[in-house]
Amino acid sequence: MVSKAPARRNASKAKQSDPVIDTLNARLADLVDLHGQIKQAHWNVTGMDFIAIHLLFDEQATMARDMADTVAERARALQGAADGTIRLAVERSTIDEFPHGLIDSKKAIAELVDRYEQLSESFSNASDEAADAEDKATEDVYVELIRTIDKQAYFLRAHLK
């Protein structure tokens, strides 16, 4: 008896209206928003540990920008468009808004941990969607990004103890 291999998603057959591409763009909006929120924290953080937290937030902003690039490139690899403007991020982001104005370092850290936790859940759901669509490459992208998101949350949580 010959077993049939599971269907493999063909990137050349993806279309702009593809649900996997739609979800990639939704997560891209979240990451563009996250980058802006981390920079907001970076610019407005206060406290005795200012310089260390200021620098940490800058590193995390770079990481968020790199993650957005990975998601956008996956959408393009599937022959979709990468919709990553700030205006689209404002429209589509699912993460909570970051507080405006000056912010104490502990509060800023707690706020960003919350954003990372929201992202981790969203990316986990997106990974499940990619698995259901039998798109192992996109699923793998999400799994790797979840690891990065969870690691950054861990780094921030260490400052709250």
**In percent terms, what proportion of residues is strand?**
under 5%
- Largest β-sheet summary: 2 strands, parallel
**Order of the strands making up the biggest sheet:** 1-2
Low-pLDDT stretches are 2-8
CATH class: Mainly Alpha
The sequence of SSEs as H and E is HEHHEHH
CATH topology: Ferritin
Instruction: Work out the helix count.
Output: 5
**CATH architecture name:** Up-down Bundle
Considering the protein shown, what is the CATH homologous superfamily? Ferritin, core subunit, four-helix bundle
Helix content: 55-70%
| Arithmetic mean of pLDDT | 92
The CA-CA distance between the termini, in Å, is 59 Å
Class derived from helix and strand content: mainly alpha
What does the overall shape look like?
elongated
Overall number of strands: 2
How would you concisely characterize the structure shown here?
By secondary structure, the protein is mostly helical.
Which features characterize this protein?
161 residues; mainly alpha; Ferritin; two-stranded parallel sheet; 5 helices; 2 strands; disordered N terminus
Tell me what you see in this structure.
With 161 residues, the protein is mainly alpha-helical. It has a single domain (16-160), classed as Ferritin, core subunit, four-helix bundle (Ferritin). It has helices spanning 19-44, 50-77, 86-92, 105-132, 136-157; strands spanning 45-46, 103-104. The protein has a two-stranded parallel sheet.
